Amino acid sequence: MLRSCAARLRTLRVLRRQPGDARLPGSQPGSGRSFSFEDVTEKDQALPKPSWSKDLRLLFDKFMKKCEDGSWKRLPSYKTSYTTSTIQDIRAFFSGSIPLKEELMSQARLFTRSFEDGLGFEYVMFYNDDEKRVVCICQGGLYLQGPPGPVPLCSVVVINSQLDKVEGRKFFVSCNVRSVDEQTLHTEGTGLFIKLEPGKSLI
User: Fold this and answer.
1) What superfamily does domain 40-77+114-196 belong to in CATH?
2) For residues 150 and 161, what is the distance between their CA atoms, to the nearest angstrom?
């Protein structure tokens, strides 16, 4: 499993490299770039890439079919969630604290989008408003290796999240993580989320 995953990543690196590609000082051929210094691009990352496995692509196509009648929607995903308006909102919330510099915020990355393609999280999410349900199809790369446990590296899992009930400002949510064939339950959990009252300070 690990050998085939590593071979696929080596192939991807060769395919992605173009003549004259700039490298960071001291970097070696084939080494990954430091994501902290990459330019911010607003490219939708939740679309098929060469690093996607066959399982991820098949499930993507399956859910895209479900989107055709409007019952499901694909959620776009970017490397950064910070826009100019977001920065202004954060500044307003923390008014009186140390001002945030836009150039620093522009370099911020979502944790799940901080890795080079294929090395970390590859995922796409679909939402069904009527069912109050989100499905995330996720492929874990080599940089996510942890202690021995249930999800093999470079495999694909299906994460199902469901809004079970709402009581005033309380939102009860359940979630489970299953294998592609849905025969293996890797983990499950529930959560309680509280909606904040507009205008009320947290501090």
Assistant:
1) Hotdog Thioesterase (3.10.129.10)
2) 19
